[in-house]
Amino acid sequence: MKYKRVLLKLSGEALMGEQQYGIDPQRLDDYTEEIASAVRAGAQIGIVIGGGNIFRGLQGASKGFDRVYGDEMGMLATVINSLALQSSLSQKGIKTVLLSGIGIDKIAELMSGPKAIGYLEQGYVVIIGGGTGNPYFTTDTGSTLRAIEIKADIILKGTRVDGIYTADPEKDPKAKKFERITYTEAYEKNLKIMDLTAFTMCKENNMPMLVFNMNEKGNLTKVLKGENIGTLVTNDIK
């Protein structure tokens, strides 16, 4: 297996499936089956999921919410999604633990890097909710922070497209896919992979990222084995 320990970043919107809001049970089951298969293959997996299918802080702020309160609501939305993942994985016989960037004693343990690593080494899927625990940070930044903390080999960003393109492939049929790209090139081309804070953290901490289609059955395990799927983003192309 090429990547032993990974941080899987999922968007909250991905859990909506064909719905307009909330959690689609079939999509949730599909995702957790992919994760369970990867764990059975020997991978150590940490997961950060967004909360946009329930509440997004920036959208709340645009509608009159105070930004701090809006972001705190968004953090709680990520915990709801994290609990859904935990429940589904547990039903599949996968050991899971929920850690959180915000204190919710009855639901989750407080996140720390050494604690998360300890659980990963014991074979647990470590789901990390609550963002960074602070307002003004996205779950992109949260996932980057957690990847660095757990000493992940790579961030796997699961999306509904099969990599990074010159433009949105769902809108521009002439968009071309990158097989590999450096962080510097992606920044210069203004490619919207992650927010700038997350992007900079990856670059400065030499954390590679692979963007791939999580909706394609079997892709997660294929990525872990090193198959040529998605787009790899690194500091250098060798």
TL;DR of this structure?
This protein is an alpha/beta fold and about 240 residues long. It has eight helices and eleven strands.
Please explain how this structure is put together.
The protein has helices at 25-40, 57-62, 67-91, 113-121, 139-149, 183-188, 196-204, 219-224; strands spanning 5-10, 44-49, 96-100, 109-110, 125-129, 154-159, 164-165, 177-178, 180-182, 209-213, 231-234. The chain is built from 8 helices and 11 strands. The mean pLDDT is 94. It has a 9-stranded mixed sheet, sandwiched between helices. The chain is globular, with a radius of gyration of 17 Å. Helix 1 (25-40) crosses helix 3 and helix 5 (139-149) packs parallel to helix 7. It is of the alpha/beta class and 238 residues long. Helix 1 (25-40) links the parallel strand 1 (5-10) and strand 2.
Strands of the biggest beta sheet: in what spatial order? 4-3-5-2-1-6-10-11-9
Which geometry do the CA atoms define? globular
Number of strands: 11
Q: For the residues shown, what is the average pLDDT?
A: 94
Helix and strand sequence: EHEHHEEHEHEEEEHHEHE
The Rg value, from CA coordinates, equals 17 Å
Catalogue the unreliable spans.
none
Helix content: 25-40%
End-to-end distance: 20 Å
Biggest beta sheet attributes:
9 strands, mixed
What structural class should be given to the helix and strand makeup? alpha/beta
